[in-house]
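Consider the following assembly input.
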Amino acid sequence: MRLADPAGTLAYLSLIFGLLLVSCPMAFPRMIVASWQNASLTPIMILFTVSVNLGLYLTVAHRCSAKPGIIASACLGSTPVFVLASLNFVLQATISHTVSGNLPNALARVNEEIVAHTYFALIAAIFGPFLLIRLGQQLHKHDS
Amino acid sequence: MFALDIQAVNADWTSAKWLLWIALYLSFGLLAPWAMTRAWAHQHQSALRPRLSQIFQNGELGLVGLMLAISVIWDLQKSEYNSYTVALGSVFLALIGIMAGWVWIEAFGRRSIGIRFRPDRAWRDSRNLALLVFSVALVTEILLDRFAKVTAL
């Protein structure tokens, strides 16, 4: 597994996010904020990132004619959950900090923070597991 | 709760700074080296007509990605985003920037000590990682543009 394998797909996902942000500047962020208010944003993101990760992993394994490993699959399934759950706490802290700061236009700022946070969390949850697998491969190579 | 002013936040295609930002990076990061190589070949009356994959065959695009990540981290640091968001974005950009730069380091190391080096792999890896850095940097610039409009209200 090389990091360049998931990087291409992740770059296109990121570009789609940017395109949605530009083409639907109100509707798309509103959808994200509404999902966050309904407490459905994190579960949806977990489902999405785990599916994308497993799809990417199986595609690369198929292309390299390699057998998918159980440890790598477990890493791909659990790391996004851990990353997104942790970052959800960070988002709560960010919102509390922004609201308590008595800043002008605080609600609009909070909405923008949620959109930015969602984007970075999405990318981190997809890239993180592959980075861990790559580092694990390097360590395994050194040990053997 | 969604209290954004539509007119103020709408991503305006003509006023958006990120469009200029893309044009600058594409022209100076990719097109300028390619055009300069052709100009050099023309000046020396050479039949050299290199493709982008040949110019960047040692993973140099990875270094371009690292420089790009640094510039966007700097923009994030200057923004009025909450410190947590700035930290999250900066760490992630630094991580993918370093991974992109690592492709060039690996290619350099392999060539230097004579381990098997494949230019096609170095080009593919650096291209994919530089594309990732570019797309994340682009979306970050769009988010910064939106946030600047909100704070200016």
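Chain B touches chain A at residues 1-6, 9-11, 13, 16, 81-85, 88-89, 92, 95-96, 99, 103, 124-129, 131-132, 134-136, 138-139, 142-143, 146-147, 150-151, 153 (CB under 8 Å). Ask yourself how this observation constrains the way the partners meet.
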